[in-house]
Design goal:
By secondary structure, the protein is mainly alpha-helical. It has helices at about 5-10, 30-50, 55-65, 70-80, 85-100, 105-120, 125-130, 135-145, 150-165, 175-185, 190-205. About 65% of the residues lie in helices and about 0% in strands.
Length: about 220
């Protein structure tokens, strides 16, 4: 290329190629071509993961943990359903636990706080929910003791009754008592506590609870939620 040609190439921002052609004149891949190339790369990555149980296990765990916190037992069950060998699952779950991505104690504390304040659940109901999710008994007890004192549980029961008692006005006292007690029972409150706070609420309205003793409620006419 002569000097004038080199100057024109420099001015145009193109580097001279062999035999006077500029590199800028080389054909560029189309948008469809680039998309196909990326898809091929992604397909190859998926094939590599599919052939590697450990990589599949990591991907499953990370995906589930991105959606919501999970206990170790919940993740183990998810891996079993996807055919991950038990020994591979245990190794991956152990590493996740070591780095803090799985923390059943923290899960239990968060669950107790959230479900008690949002739904008014008592310790018994919270314990049952956490057991269903595979949390160990000692971690459940620690979370409940830390997050939910006996006084807090009584206060929550009173608030629940205060919110629901208006809907029972006009009914016989026995039916009012049973309906309110059924609501508290479904939320995990023991019969003795339930009857005490119901009696207090009815007496505040000038009406006595119809039952003379703490009953064993059958909840047949309890409100549904």
């Amino acid at each position: 290329m002569d000097q004038d040609g080199e100057q024109r190439s420099a001015a145009s921002g193109r580097l001279p190629g062999p035999e006077g052609a500029s590199w800028g004149d080389a054909p560029q891949p189309s948008r469809a071509g680039r998309k196909a190339s990326r898809k091929a790369g992604h397909d190859e990555d998926r094939e590599n993961i599919a052939d590697n149980p450990e990589a599949r296990a990591r991907q499953v765990c990370l995906t589930l943990l991105t959606l919501a916190p999970r206990t170790r037992a919940q993740l183990a069950e998810a891996l079993r359903k996807r055919g991950i060998p038990d020994e591979v699952a245990e190794e991956v779950l152990g590493r996740f636990q070591d780095v803090g991505l799985i923390d059943d104690a923290a899960f239990a504390r968060s669950w107790v706080e959230s479900r008690h304040f949002s739904r008014g659940l008592a310790g018994r109901a919270l314990s049952a929910e956490l057991r269903q999710r595979g949390v160990a008994a000692d971690e459940i007890r620690a979370a409940i003791d830390e997050q939910l004192s006996p006084d807090a549980e009584v206060g929550a029961a009173r608030r629940l009754v205060e919110r629901r008692i208006a809907g029972t006005r006009g009914l016989p006292a026995e039916q009012r008592t049973r309906r309110l007690a059924g609501m508290l029972a479904r939320k995990g409150y023991p019969p003795g506590l339930a009857y005490r706070v119901i009696r207090e609420a009815l007496e505040a309205e000038g009406e006595s609870a119809a039952l003379e003793e703490e009953p064993c409620f059958d909840f047949e006419d309890a409100d549904t939620e």
